Batch of 4 targets.
Target 1
Amino acid sequence: MRYVIVDDNPTDQLMIQALARQYPFLKMAGCFLNPLEAVAFIRDNPPDLLFLDVEMPVMNGTDFLRSLTNPPSCIFITSHPNYAVEAFELFAIDYILKPIKKERFHRAIVRMQDYASIHEKVMQYEHHVKSETIVIQEGYDTHKILLSDIIYLEALRDYTRIFTANRTYITLGSLGNIVESLNVSNIRRVHRSYAVHAGKIESILENSLMIGKVEIPIGRTFRKDFTSFKKKNF
């Protein structure tokens, strides 16, 4: 997996390179101090992954990503938390805040690997909803999942992971469209990246909820809707 770094801080560039060297499948293709330096290279040598800063003197990182005709997968690494929503609207794989921590970088790489694995199988996945079940077509295999068995769903760019007690399923389609197609009142989005089954929630914290050992954030955009959802189901 070939990657490019665009960051105006040479020290941060070196840190990203040092962390990336821990993953043999990651190969650096280029390293640039600002987006304008990177444009021609990325056009002629499209990478698989872009490590991108946000606030840079020549061009904002989110504007740069938006300007690319066929943007690669992107992990933002920045000191500015206030661009996170915009970054995920651009389908960023992850958004890491500086100073970069090894464990946080690892989670982003695992997320990237998950997406790459799914992307390779994109044509094998489809789903449709029948009464109280959702049917997942995975290659030559067909899986029928009871809606009552769904614990939570997680968005991964153009795909959605469906978690049950026994295994995880993957289907092509955005989280919003999947939840809408399920059309059941007890499965509701609580975050840009998550939807949950009300019956599986074990506890509700100030800004998150617990399902087993999994902590799922409650997004600000969904908080008001979740409050009414909570009153009906708890």
Target 2
Amino acid sequence: MILIPIGTKAQLVKMAPVILAMKKQLVPFHFVLTGQHSETMNDLIIAFGLPQPDYTLVQVSEANTSLKLLKWLCIIVKRHLFINSEITKHHYQVCLVHGDTLSTLVCALIARRYKIKVAHIEAGLRSFNYFHPFPEELVRVIVSKMSQIHFYAGAWAGNNLKKYKNKKTIDIKYNTLIDSVKFALSQKAKDFKFNIPNKFVIVSIHRFENLSNPERLDFIIDQVLELQKKINVLFVLHPATREKLNTLKKASVLTDNGISLIPRLDYIDFLALLNKSVFIITDGGSNQEECAYLKKPCLLMRKVTERVEGLDDTVVLAKYDSTIISEFIHKYISNEENKLMPNGILDVDSPSDIIASYVKGIISE
């Protein structure tokens, strides 16, 4: 039996095709939610046609503030590390953890606590700076040390894992997100409940490193306000972003200047919106990868990134440098040829199938 714990929306998007591949290959598994995120999770489960979770580790509301996240962390550690967990009722051979969230770290610790093999999906990504992004970079390094199996995408990530000589490493060539993108493009998006201008850009900011730094957040908001003078902006309200903007009374500043605040969308709808946009400004690593696969211009609002996808093409690292930001905006607003390109790099073998086949072999031993 395989344990697949998922905590955040981004994890669910990337692990959905893995769950579907496991189901198709008849690999027995339990799909479990950690409780870190709750908002839109069920919408994603329905959109991808996933089975309902077998159980949830912690039943709490959306951990969209630092205080709520700390509360969730304390509860999950207390209930599943220090006393007999629900996990002990089942005979799991492998725990598939994904990415660099606190759920990734906690579930790897829980698995090791109960002597379950840890397999890390999206292994080998590094920014080589513990503080950018924080705590994600630290989580990745710790989870790499705890994992017995690494599923990595491409030579660059694989090279970062060479020092773990006693680990099993499997190259899945591409991130599982490429399977999610292919799935989303094959589906029909719903009608949007907000007005979509003929020409617009998307802004999606949600990472701790941006929301927790007032000076940096003010800089980003100032850049977005300047951008609105040139083109319509649709600003995505992630739960943590909405909470921060409301607390700082910044939401009204954005709307008073004509910026549209839109809800966080399910994955299929978001890809459809990305399709229609001129470009996206984001701090999300998943968005970086999506744009690399789709050849969509992307301004990554971060100082460094642990990913290499798209950096030599249409993805630009902003580095909080107003000159870099200005040059990117000028280049792509003046370019009318920015369209989604759902071909080429999407026509590859499924990394999710590779993962499912490998773990199927483990439980057959």
Target 3
Amino acid sequence: MSFAQYSVNVSSIQDFQQCRFRWFCKWVLNRVPRNESPALAAGKLLHTIFEEHFTTGVPLHMAGLRQTEEYRQLVSITEDPREKISGEAAVKVLDDMLGAFPMWMDKYPFTRMLECEKSFTLQLPIAPDITWLGRPDYLGICHGRVWHRQNRGLAAGMNFGTYVALAKRHMHEHLYAEYARKEYPDLPTVVRTLT
């Protein structure tokens, strides 16, 4: 018996675990709100800032200034008033962070970056008919092992206990560990995430 080949984005699994209705709207109906929440827009912008910092070596505060200004210009030309309000709120979130960026220090001693925001596909022997899709924030060498570092923040309204509970069952980490093990077979890999 042969099964069809499926491609599964690990984020869709997370969405399914958190809210089945949102998963259905986003991944089945392909109906997602055009207007992002300010927190989501600011989080995406923060990822872009860290990606520029890690891949080009530009100081974090310079990447923050550049990326925020570029986003601010996009917000200024949008015609949808809801997108403008949300975008302006996201810019305010980042403007509030920019002053702290020069003081940011990596608390983990990464000796080498392996990749940053690189997309991958992966097939596992346990489910050969599924192709997994992923994109880790950062893979690097820390204490002689391959680690995944998640660029993540805690939203002001998020309950810390809920945040920790969600982080413990984050499926991305398991998939990223399998990917790192296959992509870098000569390097010892750990499953944990540094945030």
Target 4
Amino acid sequence: MELQGRVEELEADGIGVAAISYDSQEILADFSQRRGISFPLLSDSGSEVIRAYGLLNTVVVEALGSGAGDPDVEADVAKYVSAFGANEGQLGMAFPGTFVLDSEGRVTERFFEEYYQDRNTSANVLLSLGAGTPPVTAVEASTSHLELTAYPSNQSITVGTRFSLVVDVDPRPGMHVYAPGAEELGYRVVSLSFESTPEVRFDAVVFPESEIFYFEPLDERVPAYQRPFRLRQEAVVARSAEAAQSLSERGTLPLTGSFEYQACDDQLCYAPVTVPLSFTLDFEQLDRTRANR
């Protein structure tokens, strides 16, 4: 559904969208009608394309065959197939992922998750590729040193959603902020952090490449950002039943954090600054019509 909500935006950017599944045409037609899907849902009922791309989920075959009853195989089923166990209706299913193709049909990027329930959103894929634009709900802040725009890649999430928390920073003319590595000289480097919550796992912050700034008053060469840059932290919504129940009862996922930095100009260094950030994401229930297939 997240992808459907961005189809017009993607098409306006010249990006076509299609999804392929081992499900029959009838199942896909029913799902498409119920959920209002406008992009093509392609049926690979014989899993020929899935096999050609090396994506066939062999865990199902093992669980229904030689590995039946094996605790290690059952653990793999819970990780790669379904929390409800394996059944014959899942034979032919693929490991879920996203391929990005160029105009010549060549694969340029691939995005895959370790767990079957984890799903990368189209917005997060675009951010990973260096594209995407801030939503109208973005938080904007301005200090004497810089301007920033902070936003989540997605306003709605569900169990297993992989999304990003983003801060776009634009230092003011003559200003620079310190990048990783500058802490070795005693400076406070830029950071993005969010309070821990049992419903979310946070990955490490992605920092862009910095440049070396020569600070003449101290004859120092320090990693810094002088031009607009982006910090991005990916997060995954927990797949546990406890997290699903908590999010379902509350209906939202509140996230609280901060962006910190220390800025200098050509002559002076200023005190470190903390900019508070908070977002509230909507929780959507998964479509369970195929959970026992």
